[in-house]
Amino acid sequence: MDIQKLDIAGLLLITPRRFGDERGFFSESWNRKVLAGHGIDIDFVQDNHSLSKTVGTVRGLHFQAPPHAQAKLVRCGRGRLFDVAVDARKGSPTFGQWFGAELSFDNGKQLLIPEGFLHGFMTLEPDTEIIYKCSDYYAPECDGSVRFDDPDIGIDWPLKDIDFTVSAKDRDAPSFADFDNPFTF
Ligand SMILES: Cc1cn([C@H]2C[C@H](O)[C@@H](COP(=O)(O)OP(=O)(O)O[C@H]3O[C@@H](C)C(=O)[C@@H](O)[C@H]3O)O2)c(=O)[nH]c1=O
């Protein structure tokens, strides 16, 4: 398992080893002990799985506020997506900065996102599936979102001149400057 620390403290890009043979491959998609050996011991309690039918579907930027903040371990089950985490921790030296990575079925990469980040993604292929572990249960009363195309964050989304598929909630999300930010570093 290759574990790469990123420039924003707490974010990790993880590439599990794949054991290929004539049947296909085998891979450990999460191993608590291995991550604990790198100082990250997260008690994941919920797994999420969603399918996005069209290219250019955007979900996010989302977070859950304390006391139900969530760390997430994100991977792509089918297709290809651009996954993004935004540092929303007030006082963080990288506050407001974002990191994005292509996660695909083929590359098997995973993004580990601690509490205090906004998370979102854009699909790059039809029928793309995302699967992610969460460290707290869904708590709709703590659910929040920020506009995915907020100019203050300035995410360089890979697809530009297409009609994005976005939920009504995400279309009407507040800006990064205006959202009720519960996170500190
Ligand atoms: C997130 C979530 C949603 N739901 C329900 C609520 C709603 O009726 C339906 C669809 O919810 P949403 O529109 O919020 O789904 P979606 O836009 O896919 O929301 C997700 O986006 C990504 C980027 C994240 O990081 C996740 O934490 C989550 O916020 O599913 C649950 O039952 N449990 C959950 O954990």
From TrEMBL:
SUPFAM superfamilies noted in UniProt: RmlC-like cupins (SSF51182)
Active site (UniProt): H62, Y132
InterPro entries named in the record: RmlC-like, RmlC-like_jellyroll, RmlC_Cupin_sf
Catalytic reaction(s) noted: dTDP-4-dehydro-6-deoxy-alpha-D-glucose = dTDP-4-dehydro-beta-L-rhamnose
CDD domains linked to this entry: cupin_RmlC (cd00438)
Coiled coil: none
GO molecular-function terms, A-Z: dTDP-4-dehydrorhamnose 3,5-epimerase activity
Pathway: Carbohydrate biosynthesis; dTDP-L-rhamnose biosynthesis
Record key words, sorted: Isomerase
Keyword Isomerase belongs to the record: yes
EC code(s) of this entry: 5.1.3.13
Positions marked as site (Participates in a stacking interaction with the thymidine ring of dTDP-4-oxo-6-deoxyglucose): Y138
GO BP term, example: dTDP-rhamnose biosynthetic process
Entry's Gene Ontology cellular component terms: cytosol
Family per record: Belongs to the dTDP-4-dehydrorhamnose 3,5-epimerase family.
Subunit (UniProt): Homodimer.
Described function: Catalyzes the epimerization of the C3' and C5'positions of dTDP-6-deoxy-D-xylo-4-hexulose, forming dTDP-6-deoxy-L-lyxo-4-hexulose.
Name this protein carries in UniProt: dTDP-4-dehydrorhamnose 3,5-epimerase
Gene that produces this protein: rfbC
